[in-house]
# Entry
Amino acid sequence: MDTHYDVAIVGYGPTGATLANLLGQLGVRVFVVDREDHIYDLPRAVHFDDEIMRIFQAAGIAEALLKQVRVNPGMRFVDANGKLLLDWPRPAGISAQGWNTSYRFHQPDLERILRESVSRMENVTALCGHRVSSITQGGDGVKLMVEKTAGGEPFKITAEYAVGCDGARSMMRSTIGTQMEDFGFREKWLVVDVELTRPRPDLGDHSIQHCGPSGSATYVRGPQNRRRWEIALKPEDEAADLSNADTIWRLIERWISPSDAVLERHAIYEFRSVVAEKWAHGRLFLAGDSAHQMPPFMGQGLCAGTRDAANLAWKLAACIKDGASTRLLESYVNERRPHVSQFVQMSMRLGGLINASKTQEALAAAFPQADGSAKLKSLYPPLGPGLGVGVGVDVDGQQQESPLSSQFLLQSGQKLDDHVGLRPVLLINDQSGRLRLPPFAGEVLFANEEPEVRAYLSQQQAAGLLIRPDRYVFSSAQTSADIPALVLAWNASLSS
# Structure
């Protein structure tokens, strides 16, 4: 094992493993350390969306993951009598991201696939069953003292940068010395995972949010025979013996009984809404649960950490491999913190509505429609102000800054991202054929050669579009004459 690396990652959960995969593919030398000997083999996170599957595609694991997941048709909010209050449908077709809009999964399956991918990379070293006892940094890098979790002589690892993906009780966050901004949501919920022993089609394929103060609960249809209930705890529930299986069955008896399933896991979670005030200090960074935690009502906890990894990976690689200015790394925090805060606050709103005494009125007030009904659609909020100055048009025709780009099929039958790889891409609609570009370290695709490029540029009302390695739009050009300036702006953003 080497002792010096480009990037050290503390924590080998989904965020750390995704970051290791992306950095590994970019040729970065990576050291990953985790205090646990093995993957935690029980369910935790259960949802990710189309943007996240696109990131897993970039990490090279999408095809393997498809064999383990289930497409989610959406979520329905109902009152105590089963009346539909709000519908959050997920379209059955492929979205603008090139994947289904919502997936259910078993977290140990995802972690296993991520780690198997890492194990095939010669430039990534993963060490489990070890903990980091101290982290210090200086002008020339970061020093980590590492030792076996069970005890033993510490040894030193050095790196150019270190990223804490070490969860809600993050050591890296303590090292950086930041407080958490608390958005004010704090509730205890019981999470119960079961495996069916006989078919129960009546439970349905949609996720169900049971609303109201008398019995707030969530039902989740997982892959294969897995089912989950999340139940808001009342004072009398908290006083009960929740380690007792009979008590657990009593709390979910209106839906299922021991004759239908076996208990796989049950645990009490305190759902919180917090975001770290500082995500970086010098050469140290936070990602995933170490930087933010949110209620689960939108299924965006794991998604947020995966977006952190995608945003940070290419920027670290650009600094380490390509000599980009370290100022580029400042955009990580500036972009990701406001973005994830939007999801935290929306998740809080949903949690409050589920528990509202007048849920139907609260839903209608929060998600008003012209006809007075309440509906919810998937969100693609823009990044915070950072690396990108252009305005794009999203799939609903609304303008937004630094939008997430679409993924389409090329003439070869390849998806855009598979063709481009982890590089920027410039889409051009130049009718003159005389365009001369400045140096550009990325892929260039022309509308006259790719019909889908032409269609996308037309939708975006642009002659040119520069897409970052994390698939967010950097900026657009309105005319062919503006495209060289677009490339120059991109090059300047990496060097200044």
